[in-house]
Amino acid sequence: MRIRRWFIYRAHRAVHIERGADPHCPDCRGEGGWWEGSAVHPEEPDVVTCPCNDGPRIRIPLGRRPRTSYSAEPPF
């Protein structure tokens, strides 16, 4: 889910909240970075992240799932 510059997603039993790139940044124009390729190795371009993309990252761990005891009887 995205709310303006903030990305919220759930992965690995935690909720992650990250701030994205500034949409008014003159360097990356809101894309968060750019590719710098090499003429010697064009198949291995390097990713350069913009300083506007370095924001806080918050991880909120979710609680453990409760153990349930299963009965041998049918449900109906």
Q: How would you write the strand order of the largest sheet?
A: 1-2-3-6
Instruction: Give the overall shape, derived from the CA principal axes.
Output: elongated
Number of helices: 0
What is the makeup of the main sheet? Answer: 4 strands, antiparallel
How much beta, percentage-wise? 35-45%
Q: Structural class of the secondary elements?
A: mainly beta
Tally of structural domains: 1
Distance between the termini: 39 Å
Question: What ranges have pLDDT less than 50 throughout 5 or more consecutive residues?
Answer: none
Share of helix, binned:
under 10%
Q: Quote the average pLDDT.
A: 81
Helices and strands, in N-to-C order?
EEEEEE
Overall number of strands: 6
What gyration radius follows from the Cα positions, in whole Å? Answer: 21 Å
Descriptive report:
A hairpin with a 2-residue loop joins strand 2 and strand 3. The chain has strands at 2-3, 6-11, 14-19, 33-36, 46-49, 57-61. The protein has one domain. By secondary structure, it is mainly beta. It is elongated and about 65 Å long. The chain is built from no helices and 6 strands. The mean pLDDT is 81. The strands form 2 sheets. The chain has a 4-stranded antiparallel beta sheet, with no helix packed on it. A two-stranded antiparallel sheet has the order 4-5.
Topology, please?
Elements: E1 2-3, E2 6-11, E3 14-19, E4 33-36, E5 46-49, E6 57-61
Antiparallel strand pairs: 1-2, 2-3, 3-6, 4-5
